[in-house]
Amino acid sequence: MNTVCFIFARGGSKGLPNKNIRPFAGKPLIAWAIEQAKAVHRIRRVIVSTDSTSIAEVAREYGAETPFMRPPELAGDNSPEWLAWRHALNYIQETEGSLPDAMISIPATAPLRFIDDIIACLDEFEKGNADVVITVTDAHRNPSFNMVKYTNDEFVGLVTPPAEGVFRRQDAPQVFDMATVAFVVDPKFVFSNSSIFSGRVRAVNVPTERAIDIDTLFDFEVAEFLMQRRTRNL
């Protein structure tokens, strides 16, 4: 299967400034995603889509391609990443004359993934009959039991009250947290739809300790501690 990997890494991060190139367990954060992608032989190209010259420079240093810069209008706080996906795929179509069989997005913010997690996502996509493969991890909260929201009278209530006769969390429908370990997508689906759940979505379950998504300094410090512990045990 002809697979191209994109790592989407914009420069403006309000939660943790410059997080994509912040030193993480001995190398810039984005370097982990690049090296993980390049270790998967089924991935033909590893391309970083960014609006930042600093990120692009680091990306090239670690072996990724940066053949274009992402336009500012696709790199703002409110810019849907879906449009950045389309922009990246347009580049492939215009320069190679056709779309790849699959696009895989490997976010820099989930460095604790294993290479086998990426391979598992590709395997699931190659089974066919899916537009998108996402990663999930077991949820520690359930909207029917211990997730609440404010109601119109400013009190709180359950997000989704349990069905009649369901009294234990274990008896409620199992729920999962979406993870950012990897996304495998049919490029044609990206052009004909505007969201992941517009199509047929399959999931690969990844252990929680490999699915931490870095958004804040706390996330960063927890993830770095786990990565350092992992590398010491190798």
TrEMBL record:
It holds the Pfam family CTP_transf_3. InterPro entries: CMP-NeuNAc_synthase, Cytidylyl_trans, Nucleotide-diphossugar_trans. One of its GO terms (molecular function) is N-acylneuraminate cytidylyltransferase activity. It comes from the Bacteria. The keyword Plastid does not apply. Keywords: Nucleotidyltransferase, Transferase. This is Acylneuraminate cytidylyltransferase family protein. It comes from Leptospira brenneri.
